[in-house]
Design goal:
alpha+beta, 2 helices, elongated
Length: 107
């Protein structure tokens, strides 16, 4: 399935809007990462453990987004956006959302 943050797909016409689709994941902190993050905050720099955790969570959200569009018969998802929010102390949600569409043939 094609998915993109743009509103169109080059050389393809959108022939039907199927609807809004979402995918999300709630990720909690890991005590080992918290200890390393605390040490890193003293000297500064990137906290790679958290970067990797958020990257993995974003991938899960995208996979769930695609999984929610497939049963609707969508060929693509356009206008994908991401949001984050704190759920409770120590955990956050990453949500991906977009518009599931059906595409015409290549031009």
């Amino acid at each position: 399935m094609i998915y993109t943050t743009t509103e169109t797909i080059p050389d393809r016409d959108i022939i039907e809007i199927v609807g809004v689709v979402t995918g999300n994941v709630v990720q909690s902190k890991h005590i080992g990462r918290d200890i390393m993050a605390g040490l890193k905050s003293i000297v500064g720099g990137e906290i790679r453990g958290y970067t990797e955790m958020l990257s993995d969570a974003r991938d899960v959200a995208i996979n769930r987004l695609v999984a929610s569009a497939a049963p609707k018969g969508a060929d693509a998802i356009v206008g994908i956006r991401f949001t984050t929010s704190a759920i409770m102390d120590g955990s956050s949600e990453i949500m991906a959302f977009g518009t599931a569409v059906k595409l015409g043939p290549s031009r």
